[in-house]
Each structure stands twice: as C-alpha cells, then as structure tokens.
Design a protein that fits this description.
By secondary structure, the protein is mainly α. The chain has a single domain, classed as Orthogonal Bundle (Arc Repressor Mutant, subunit A), CATH 1.10.10.10. It is 56% helix and 12% strand. Strands 1-3-2 form a three-stranded antiparallel sheet. β2 and β3 form a beta hairpin. The radius of gyration is 13 Å and the shape is globular.
C-alpha cells in the first residue's frame, strides 16, 4: 500500500509541476525527485505519457493534457463517469 501511495504522490507531483505550463525533462525531474526516487519518477512519467495524461510536443519537453488536468483537479473524465470510478488522487482513502 505504501508503494501505491508513493506512486500517487509522484503522479500528483508531476501533474502539479506541469500545471503551470510545459517543462523540460531535467527541471521537471529535479522537482519530482524532492519527494520521490528518480526511478519512480521516470516510471510514472512514462506511464502518464502512455495513458494520455501527458504529451511530449518536442524531445525532452512535457506538458499536461486535458485528460491530465481532469485527473489533477479530481474531475472525472467521461470514461470514469460512465464506469462510475473514482479519482484516486482526490479520494486516496478509498483505495
């Protein structure tokens, strides 16, 4: 359960850092590793890219997508509403 909470915290840190605008990999990683490990940060970053929460408009540049903004804000996406699933970042005590 601790690993899961740590991963959620890393997701929140990455999305929160990108909320103000696109960032290059190095500054983003420096922010995230203050509360995570470099390996976890990289794994979560790749997962967020693969799931469509982030995109990479240029090499080494990351930005949050609308889908990622919804996750960060706690608003359910249309798919989550249809499935009735909760946002784990907003409701971590339910998981």
């Amino acid at each position: 359960m601790e690993r899961f909470k740590a991963c959620l915290a890393t997701v929140a840190a990455i999305l929160g850092a990108l909320e103000s605008g696109p960032m290059r990999w190095t500054p983003l990683t420096r922010i995230v590793v203050q509360s995570s490990t470099p390996w976890r940060a990289q794994a979560v970053l790749e997962w967020l890219l693969g799931e469509g929460y982030l995109d990479r408009p240029a090499r080494g540049v990351y930005r949050i997508t609308e889908h990622g903004s919804l996750l960060l804000s706690g608003s359910p996406s249309p798919a989550q509403e249809a499935q009735g699933s909760l946002n784990p970042l907003k409701y971590p005590h339910t998981f």
